[in-house]
Specification:
GO molecular function, one term: DNA binding
Oligomer: single chain
Shape: globular
Number of strands: 5
Radius of gyration: 20 Å
Protein name: DNA-binding CsgD family transcriptional regulator
Keywords: DNA-binding, Transcription, Transcription regulation
Pfam family, one: GerE
Largest sheet: 5 strands, antiparallel
Strand content: 15-25%
Domain HTH luxR-type: 192-257
Strand order of the largest sheet: 2-1-5-4-3
Length: 261
């Protein structure tokens, strides 16, 4: 459970000290810390984007997850997440999924038992995607990065733990509302927000090497590529971000946008 604001301040300080090339480790630290502070046993991070041309009558108004990360991806939980992801493209969208994307608030926190009607908890979605995998309750945060990109974060409590309450919700919101810079940094590492197109998995590994200050030959050796292949990836990264060199690329992480494309 939370104990005042000191753990929250410590979390902010720790995240601020991570170099940009350690974004994955920083995200894991955030999720682990939230579980520790709020007595949760697992956490999920998701980047949700709005499709440019959603189908007529789309219950989710075009919103779909692009990246999903489970803190502890145990097989039953990973299977549940995959099932839910697949269901988003079918007509059988659950009420909880609709409410998760509804509204236009720039920042929002919710308690599961506050957001859903009582009858939902005796329905198949709660039974399958909560109780069957050891979850009984969740608390969530949604932050709009821009009109078409949002970050969603959930923490879960087990069937043995008490429900989340407003005593948890308020400090949870405090902990996460001041981290918009962190969410932006996470999205930049995937090529969102500024890049013309999302980075491939290999481009992202090359990008992190560039931000760490490694030479192209060193990045090639780490990834088991030829220097020429790595150079091609570097050029592609620069093109996607609309920059011409490493200095301009790095400046994006300092909050500067590239000049005219």
């Amino acid at each position: 459970m939370h104990d005042g604001t000191e753990p929250i301040y410590a979390l902010w300080d720790k995240l601020a000290n991570y170099p940009v090339c350690d974004g994955d480790e920083a995200l894991e630290h955030l999720l682990c810390s939230l579980c520790s502070i709020f007595g949760a046993h697992n956490a999920l991070w998701s980047v949700v984007v709005r499709l440019p041309s959603p189908a007529l009558g789309d219950a989710l108004n075009g919103w779909r997850p692009l990246f999903v990360r489970l803190l502890r991806p145990l097989p039953p939980m990973a299977a549940s997440v995959q099932e839910q992801f697949d269901s988003l493209w079918s007509p059988s969208v659950d009420l909880s999924q609709i409410l998760a994307v509804a509204g236009e608030e720039p920042f929002r926190t919710q308690l599961l038992f506050e957001a859903l009607p009582p009858e939902w908890f005796s329905g198949p979605h709660y039974q399958r995607h909560y109780l069957a995998i050891g979850h009984a309750d969740s608390m969530s945060m949604r932050c709009a990065i821009n009109d078409d990109v949002r970050v969603h974060l959930f923490i879960f409590r087990s069937t043995e733990a008490p429900r989340f309450s407003s005593a948890d919700k308020n400090p949870f919101g405090l902990a996460l509302r001041g981290l918009r810079w962190f969410y932006r940094q996470q999205l930049l590492s995937h090529g969102l927000l500024i890049a013309n197109a999302p980075l491939t998995a290999t481009e992202r590994r090359v990008l992190l090497g560039l931000l760490e200050g490694k030479a192209e030959k060193a990045i090639a050796a780490i990834l088991g590529q030829s220097p020429n292949t790595t150079h091609i990836h570097v050029k592609s990264i620069y093109a996607k971000f609309g920059v011409h060199n490493r200095a301009a690329l790095t400046s994006l992480w300092l909050g500067r946008l590239p000049e005219a494309r």
